[in-house]
Amino acid sequence: MSEQGIANFISGTILDGRQVAPSDELLMSGLLDSLAVMTLVAHLETEMQVEIPADKITFENFSSVQNVMSLLKTL
User: Fold this and answer.
1) CA 20 to 30 Å from 63, out of 4, 38, 41, 49?
2) Domains with residue ranges and CATH for the chain
3) How far is CA 26 from the centre of its chain?
């Protein structure tokens, strides 16, 4: 999955069409809350057929689409 694919999922499913860029701050800005992060985690695990360990679901790893991509590259 690409950065744009992740951004599109967040925009279309979580933010009801509000666009996000890969570098946008997702958590500090309030765009995503803990439930939204878990929705994103479930989507990524299903789409990419990976398991994201609980200790990797951190503020830093989910603070932007770019950081999510960096995390996924380590799995």
Assistant:
1) 49
2) 3-74 (1.10.1200.10)
3) 8
